[in-house]
Amino acid sequence: MIDTALFGAGRIGKIHAANLARLPDMRLKYVVDSHAPAARELAAVHGAEACSAEQALDDPAVRAVVIASSTDTHAELILAAAARGKAIFCEKPVDLELERARQCARAVATAGVPCLIGFQRRYDPTFAALKARLAAGEIGAPEMLIVTSRDPGAPPLDYIRRSGGIFKDMLIHDFDICRWILDDEVVSVHASASALSDPAIAAAGDADSTAVTLRTRQGRLCQINTSRRAAYGYDQRFEVLGSRGMLQAGNHRPTEVTAYGERAVAADLPEPFFLERYRQAYAAEMAHFLEVMRDGAAPRTTVEDGVRALELADAATRSWRLGRVVELDQV
Amino acid sequence: MIDTALFGAGRIGKIHAANLARLPDMRLKYVVDSHAPAARELAAVHGAEACSAEQALDDPAVRAVVIASSTDTHAELILAAAARGKAIFCEKPVDLELERARQCARAVATAGVPCLIGFQRRYDPTFAALKARLAAGEIGAPEMLIVTSRDPGAPPLDYIRRSGGIFKDMLIHDFDICRWILDDEVVSVHASASALSDPAIAAAGDADSTAVTLRTRQGRLCQINTSRRAAYGYDQRFEVLGSRGMLQAGNHRPTEVTAYGERAVAADLPEPFFLERYRQAYAAEMAHFLEVMRDGAAPRTTVEDGVRALELADAATRSWRLGRVVELDQV
Amino acid sequence: MIDTALFGAGRIGKIHAANLARLPDMRLKYVVDSHAPAARELAAVHGAEACSAEQALDDPAVRAVVIASSTDTHAELILAAAARGKAIFCEKPVDLELERARQCARAVATAGVPCLIGFQRRYDPTFAALKARLAAGEIGAPEMLIVTSRDPGAPPLDYIRRSGGIFKDMLIHDFDICRWILDDEVVSVHASASALSDPAIAAAGDADSTAVTLRTRQGRLCQINTSRRAAYGYDQRFEVLGSRGMLQAGNHRPTEVTAYGERAVAADLPEPFFLERYRQAYAAEMAHFLEVMRDGAAPRTTVEDGVRALELADAATRSWRLGRVVELDQV
Amino acid sequence: MIDTALFGAGRIGKIHAANLARLPDMRLKYVVDSHAPAARELAAVHGAEACSAEQALDDPAVRAVVIASSTDTHAELILAAAARGKAIFCEKPVDLELERARQCARAVATAGVPCLIGFQRRYDPTFAALKARLAAGEIGAPEMLIVTSRDPGAPPLDYIRRSGGIFKDMLIHDFDICRWILDDEVVSVHASASALSDPAIAAAGDADSTAVTLRTRQGRLCQINTSRRAAYGYDQRFEVLGSRGMLQAGNHRPTEVTAYGERAVAADLPEPFFLERYRQAYAAEMAHFLEVMRDGAAPRTTVEDGVRALELADAATRSWRLGRVVELDQV
Q1: Are B254 and B277 contacting, i.e. CB atoms less than 8 angstroms apart?
Q2: Which of A159, B2, D68, D223 is least crowded, fewest Cβ atoms below 10 Å from its Cβ?
């Protein structure tokens, strides 16, 4: 039984707690949240204890931490947990500052602990099946990747101001998809962006619509298009063109009802947002965290993946601001 | 906390036990199975106790029973549980003999206990959404219902011989769908059937392919087509034609991957069989059982529904054997 | 160059004339219509001559006739054309009276002329491709056929009264599909029907909704469901279950636009009615008529097919009226 | 009756000739081709006369010319036809040299003749329906456009060497789609490209895969992805995200057959190539040419559109070669 401490009792923290509860070999021991009532409430649901960060980190019985607190606390918690030899699961991004994220990666390497970053899309049944079929050679060598990633609506301005910008907040997932699916590293980035849905977003120095092109070492091309506002829901698709065919990952729908009316044939909208769309993925990533700790499985989403995605987000932000292509210096 | 006894530790018993375990207000106290090791194993998983039927039934703390044992035990357990005032959930069919099923219905009515029959399809998200939209008038008055219901492969001959025949074993679900969707009672049945996949099925006096037409009091028409063998998986669809449109309930797929190859555009096969297809439905029906007991909700699938579906299965069997239309004497 | 006479300058006559005009080896010489202005107008479009039936039939230069006039004139024109040794294309049905249709078949056989019946669905690209793939063994042996055939709206009552009833007027096409797709003959028919859209249809002794089950010599089952009124357009689908899979023929749509709105994902309705849905089929059947005449190709839809479909329509009508299964005496 | 001269008796010339033949008010008088037998053969099919370019241009009875000859002859023929006051239909591109294309545009303006450029996609039923629905406000203001445009296979190297490069040869259509759909002008272009399918293409100084981002005056973003080789056929899709929804234009398929096999559910591949995919579009654009001449309709695809698309192709080529964003100086 692996005693676990959860940092963050918000929306995503609750999901991790519930998924953890279903795993026979993990036990939620502590819930930590700067808002004490939230910690107590979530702890009560799962028979855990609300406590301070120090208490949770300093308890040697705690072998695993799940970091689902606000972004500005990620790095500190990773460093503290790594220093104490605990296995780490941390929501993306590692940090908004690239240098700080790299520091975390070095600390994790030094400590020799597993550190999974919450790129939950890699665990989605549709995306994972596509990746497996691509790896099995079904469409030959991949040549192009087109990623569509649109949210149903923009978050509050206050959130946007603290988010690090659309590239670090939203596209970081899409950058990870590109690296994962193409199994290749990016050499140059071009990003264009606009604020079309709300002038306040532009006033805050951010954008709500982006069009990004990545070029990989092997000359593969990847295009990402995103929007903060898709009136029809949460749109998460990608397609890979290979030398012998194409694989598409489509949206999931709540039901398979089709209505033939007097004006159109209508199907369900996509799942409304990430909590519904990635419900299975969140459960699978927590199960994977257990596999890593218990069985020594190789982590599927490492802190290094987190750093690389952040590098791309940084490069894209610069490309957009400067209006030119940005080269990545590959190690 | 409602203490519950589960009868039957087989495939479907395990599913009910797991769904029960997730409900905060229900507790699995006993598992009963004629094969003792199976009972012990399942009881161990959920912290319950394996015991005899008598012990479980005679424990006054047990307020609910879930009957997932073999068909020939259903009626006896229903009668015993009803006599003791326990709430009942029982898998379909109530019994293979119509008279015996009616006896159960009377006993349940006399005892005043809730008795839900496991027509889990009514709880499927797709089917339930269709029903709700139909009830909301989206396509006007329903006029025709076409039900496609095909299994991926025939069960063992031994099972078939004890099954009561394809109409009682397989179509009983489809008859329930017809009554539920059309909200109307059947006045006549015509059934045609063949054994096309395996001569041994014919030799056993049964069929593997059926074509049934039902006519309701209001003159609505319903066609059901079934097969014991769909090479492509478990095919569960229906469509309702109404005066202002049509609603279709389609199959569910494991993933939303689409492959464009050199010969075709390919999507996933439907979910392979009922355990996968109706995973959500099984969870929802157990949650509904709790609602009925705890909140006094009206049962969505009653023992009366079980009797009516059996009447239709009987009528269809006679229609097929006699080669003629069979009228139902409606009360 | 094959000189051709067209009987009937109505909607379907105009289509045949236009398709004929595109065939390099056929020439429309005469147009005959009891309504003289219609004949003159259509003749003018195509550089043909309006004339009487006698003149067209008695001109030895006319080697082919296309009969698209009202049903009650079909038999007489077939007999007259066969007697003069002309190749015949005739719209369905051969006649409303089975004995009269059989008389036509005998006359055609005696004369040794080709006589194609206008079961245009056999020439539809989707239906023909499905048939070819079935014949190539793609899904093994066919076992069940489900036919959905719905019109967008009922014709005028006046038409219905002269139509011979829904089974002869509308289902005759579906009966032909069953014989063609299953390549098997029917041994028994059960038909149920209702008038649900308009009481005046019932008052006229007809129905607007039918549910038919056919059983073939080889024990295959076929279900047909039809309606005179599908609010969403012209619905023409069928599916064949075989021992190794299933083939579905779906509707055609005017465009491939998909709209993601705030409430649903919407695609085009099916093509509105038969003129649009079977545009390509009409062209292909006229081209086939030429192949038969010029190249000696075997006719794909013979007068015998017309007789057989009428037998089924007769049997279905009787089954509905008598409320019982009707056996067909197969030769 | 408008006498017309056709330049070019190749694949696309034959299509224009056949579509022209169906228009009652146009008559193909001359066919011109540097390969005389091709001209004679096509002329014979349509009752026209093979002749020299001079004869066709100098015949004052010829009021319209259709230019479907090789690209290097377009400008000269446009200039000659404009000088003689003839209405012009010319395949894309106007010319490979932007300055020469602009010269044609000026000549056409001076002559006051209509000059349609063969951007046939604007006439495609699916694309035109999408444009109309967008214009009607169905999804609010357009914000992003994603264009997928892939050929089934690369043309011969010899063709590629004379093609002007993939941006002028292939993407010119996509650039036109962007301007047409967004109804906005482009201010900057970024293009990335690779030769992934065949090293000989790289050796010829060209690419076979491109990823292009356009930014419009109003800040809208457009991404185009293209490939010379899609193993699954001709892939022509685009989607527009608007403030209130999204419209997608999908591929057309030869048939609507769906096969449920033991491994997948399979639908038809897209139409194999442009001749099949745009059959209806080619007919519609020739009908529109007649409308313009006979009824004075405003041309839907002008020589100015041809110049603008070429500007974008030039800019994209430069962007790719220089590895930087290229600004367009908008007039």
Answers
A1: no
A2: A159
Contacts of B140 in chain C (CB under 8 A): 231
**Chain D residues with at least one Cβ partner in B under 8 Å:** 230-233, 235, 259-270
Q: What pLDDT sits at residue C202?
A: 96
Same domain, yes or no: C108 and C190? no
Distance from CA of A261 to the nearest CA of C (A): 5
Coil/strand/helix, residue D51: coil
pLDDT at D331: 40
Contact list, C241 vs chain B (CB under 8 Å): 150, 225, 227, 230
Residues B172, B216 within the same domain? yes
ω before B152 within 30° of 0 (cis)? no
Nearest chain D residue to B251 by CA: give it: D265
Look at residue D189 and tell me if it is in a domain. yes
Q: What is the pLDDT of residues B110-119, one digit of tens each?
A: 999 999 999 9
Distance from CA of D267 to the nearest CA of A (A): 14
Inter-chain contacts counted by CB atoms under 8 A, chains B and C: 122
Q: D127 lies in a domain? A: yes
B neighbours by CB contacts (3+ pairs under 8 Å): A, C, D
Residues D315 and D171 in one domain: yes
pLDDT tens sequence across B71-123: 999 999 999 999 999 999 999 999 999 999 999 999 999 999 999 999 999 99
Last residue of some domain: A46, A80, A113? A113
pLDDT at A54: 97
Where does the pLDDT of residue B329 fall: very low under 50, low under 70, confident under 90, or very high at 90 and above? confident
Among candidate residues C113, C134, C149, the one where a domain is terminated: C113
Q: What percent of chain B has pLDDT over 70?
A: 99
C-alpha distance from residue B10 to each of A187, B170, B277 (Å): 56, 19, 18
Nearest to A120 by CA among A196, A16, A224: A16
Average of per-residue pLDDT across D84-111: 97
Q: Are residues D109 and D132 in the same domain?
A: no
Q: What is the distance in angstroms between the Cα of D218 and the nearest Cα belonging to chain C?
A: 23
- Quote the CA–CA distance of A309 and A174 in Å, as a whole number: 8
Domain limits for position D88: 2-113
At residue D46, the 3 state secondary structure works out as coil
State the ipTM, two decimals: 0.95
**Which residues of chain D have a CB within 8 Å of the CB of C254?**
125, 129
**Domain tally, chain B:** 2
The Cα D117–Cα C82 span in angstroms is: 53
Say whether both C93 and C193 belong to one domain: no
Residues ≥6 apart with Cβ < 8 Å to A124? A277, A278, A280, A281, A284
Cis peptide before A299 (omega within 30 of 0): no
Q: Do C265 and A262 lie within an 8 Å CB cutoff?
A: no
**Structure confidence at residue A331 (pLDDT):** 39
3-state secondary structure of D239: strand
Q: What is the mean pLDDT of residues D42-65?
A: 97
pLDDT confidence tier of residue A174, bands split at 50, 70 and 90: very high
Q: CA B106, B110, B115 angle in degrees (round to 5)?
A: 70
Across chain B, mean pLDDT equals 97
Chain C residues whose CB is inside 8 A of the D260 CB are 245-248
> Tens of pLDDT along A10-56?
999 999 999 998 898 999 999 999 999 999 999 999 999 999 999 99
